[in-house]
Design a protein that fits this description.
This protein is α/β, with parallel strands linked by helices. Helices cover 32% and strands 24% of the residues. It has four helices and six strands, in the order E-H-E-H-E-H-E-E-E-H. Strands 4-2-1-3-6-5 form a six-stranded mixed sheet, covered by helices on one side. The protein is globular.
Length: 119
């Protein structure tokens, strides 16, 4: 796979007081049912990302990090992973968009740092 086509999505916030349509997008379409669940997509999901932007963070993932993710946290044939909370905690608020907070779109390097801390 080409690394520019892989997008990793991590759910940062839980489901308390989440509107029904947003929770449906997160749990049914993206299969992110709990905090710190992670999903890898190889297709365009811009609509889902825009709808759930207040509960998730996302960014590109390279093949090496994806292989490490599958080795450490993966199950056979699944693209959904359970992660740990990040080592050292979150550096910013989990209620504000990136770069002031942890939510929203990230660059490749920033996503790699966060994901490495969560493995």
């Amino acid at each position: 796979m080409v690394d520019s086509q892989l997008t990793v999505v991590i759910r940062i916030r839980g489901s308390m007081e989440t509107r029904g349509e947003i929770e449906e997008t997160l749990s049914t379409h993206m299969r992110l049912t709990r905090k710190f669940h992670c999903a890898v997509f190889s297709r365009d999901i811009k609509g889902w990302l825009q709808k759930a932007k207040d509960y998730i963070t996302w960014g590109p993932i390279d093949d090496a990090l994806y292989a490490e993710l599958k080795q450490k946290r993966g199950k056979e044939g699944k693209r959904i992973f359970r992660l740990h909370p990040p080592n050292g905690g979150f550096k910013h608020s989990t209620k504000l968009p990136f770069p002031k907070g942890e939510l929203g779109k990230r660059s490749g390097e920033s996503m790699k740092k966060l994901l490495t801390r969560m493995l």
